[in-house]
Write a structure and sequence with these properties.
With 500 residues, the chain is an alpha/beta fold. Helix content is 23%, strand content 15%. The radius of gyration is 22 Å and the shape is globular.
Length: 500
């Protein structure tokens, strides 16, 4: 394990909600290796890394915590990159996982099937559709490929690791079906390391071989790769041509259930480091998304991140009486994961040509067995108060740093919502008007906008507009009204009209 500290052996984990798990390193101990790839060819489009944390609270990153006097939070890698980039002080996602991830991928509020729950394994024949995003939806991965082809630039390689959370009851709305060349992770709402791949069928195949009906195995841990050989059940899958399209058969044959690792977030970190380190940047740019299980339950992280007692012995895994310390230690691990991945970009000689977006998918969850912290914001995950939707978020990477004046810390107050990021990243890569590759001619409150110009104005020129005046739809009864000087959260209240 190139990016793990050999001081900590891999230990077994306790299968409990708050079980701390296998030992790992602190990335401050990582020694940088010589770059293994040549710097990007001049004119090649920038690499994009999206680092998405699950259920992370507003007060759980050091650069926010220090403003409230909270000295417990220790996230030095996150803080360093936030302060050398652009802190998005008004970054908003939706109140919970699925709609946020779908809006991010598609630039649309209405991209997630609102008739089913956040558990994408839900399937309701009465509504005639599977859970998650509708198959065939254009995503950011597809748009990046389309953009690069249309400007005669090498096509992006697209990869995704971790939690998908917006499809999985159809092969066509798994990551490969949505435009990603390769994937390692899980496509349900969460995964318990101790459970991992589960089968729920007694079909014609042996129990150890997963059947072609994906809805029967949503909780599993999966790998998808266009370049891989067909899996062992592909002959059976090909017999289902009356049930599956040619595209679905291809995706099913390239999808393989994996044995769950000792620790999900450790495994996907290693996969991201592998993808970054092995990519041929001289031939094509990379768009990669890393989506953690943490800070979502079950909160499993390396035991090495728990504090030793006074005698120097390792403490027992945290329990329900010290949730706050458990949550803090989990964030220390998340910070090291981020540090390892950014170090991998530098080791690959690609820092100068990389854009990084760091974000939570919604506000911190505050319910049984959680102790996430959204202070000083009111509310939490699942509601529309600020604590449920305003999240830690920043832009970083050498591409960002090289576009900013030196020696200053930048904080943007431009309102950016989940559905705005896909159009904005396309704008950053391809220039104004590039959102057409994602949204075509669609406009309105349910569709995202290109905001890079406004973000730059907000940190460099107060005379220029830093807000795009618009309405932003979150649901049938909640939307924002953004103006140049004020922003209102608006809620329909039935016959009584609209309340602000």
């Amino acid at each position: 394990m190139k990016y793990l500290n050999a001081l900590f052996p891999i230990w077994s984990i306790a299968c409990v909600v708050l079980g701390a798990a296998a030992g790992t390193k602190s990335s401050k101990d990582v020694k940088s290796n010589p770059p293994t790839n040549q710097p990007a060819t001049p004119g090649l489009l920038p690499n994009i890394l999206v680092f998405l944390v699950d259920d992370m609270g507003y007060n759980q990153v050091g650069y926010n915590a220090e403003l409230t006097g909270n000295t417990e939070i220790q996230t030095p890698h996150i803080d360093e990159h936030a302060k050398s980039g652009i802190i998005m002080n008004r970054g908003y996602m939706t109140p919970w996982c699925g709609p946020s991830r779908a809006a991010f991928q598609t630039g649309r509020t209405n991209s997630f099937n609102q008739n089913v729950s956040n558990q994408v394994s839900s399937f309701d024949d009465s509504i005639g559709f599977v859970g998650g995003m509708p198959p065939g939806t254009v995503t950011l991965a597809k748009a990046f490929k389309d953009l690069s082809r249309n400007i005669d630039s090498p096509e992006y390689k697209t990869s995704y690791v971790g939690k998908w959370g917006i499809g999985g009851t159809s092969w066509a709305n798994t990551p490969m079906g949505m435009g990603y060349d390769e994937f390692l992770g899980f496509w349900a709402d969460s995964i318990e390391t101790c459970d991992g791949w589960q089968t729920f069928t007694t079909g014609p195949l042996p129990q150890e071989i997963q059947p072609s009906v994906l809805a029967n195995a949503v909780p599993g841990y999966w790998q998808q790769k266009n370049s891989s050989v067909d899996n062992v059940v592909c002959p059976y899958i090909r017999e289902q041509s009356d049930l599956l399209t040619a595209e679905e058969i291809h995706i099913a044959c390239k999808s393989t259930p994996k044995t769950p690792p000792k620790l999900i977030d450790l495994d996907i970190m290693e996969e991201t480091v592998r993808i970054i380190g092995s990519h041929d940047y001289a031939s094509r740019p990379l768009y990669h998304m890393h989506a953690l299980q943490l800070m979502h339950l079950p909160m499993q992280y390396p035991k090495a991140y728990d504090d030793p007692d006074e005698a120097g012995k390792e403490k027992k895994p945290a329990n329900n009486t010290d949730l706050r310390i458990t949550t803090r230690n989990a964030m220390r691990f998340v910070d090291d994961v981020f540090g390892n991945i950014t170090q991998a970009i530098k080791d690959a000689g690609q820092w100068h040509n990389t854009i990084i977006l760091f974000s939570s998918d919604n506000g911190g969850a505050i319910y049984l067995n959680t102790a996430n912290n959204n202070f000083p914001l009111r509310g939490s995950k699942f509601n529309a108060f600020e604590g449920g939707i305003r999240v830690p978020q920043f832009l970083s990477g050498g591409w960002i740093e090289n576009s900013l004046p030196k020696g200053q810390n930048f904080k943007s107050n431009t309102y950016v919502f989940a559905l705005d990021w896909a159009p904005t990243l396309l704008e950053m890569v391809g220039g104004p008007g590039s959102k057409k590759y994602l949204l075509g001619d669609w406009k309105g409150a349910s569709y995202g906008n290109e905001l890079w110009k406004y973000i730059k104005n907000s940190i460099s020129d107060p005379k220029k507009p830093s807000q795009l005046e618009r309405y932003v739809s979150y649901s049938l009864d909640l939307y924002f009204r953004v103006t140049k000087t004020t922003t209102n959260k608006m809620i329909y209240t039935g016959d009584s009209g609209v309340s602000y």
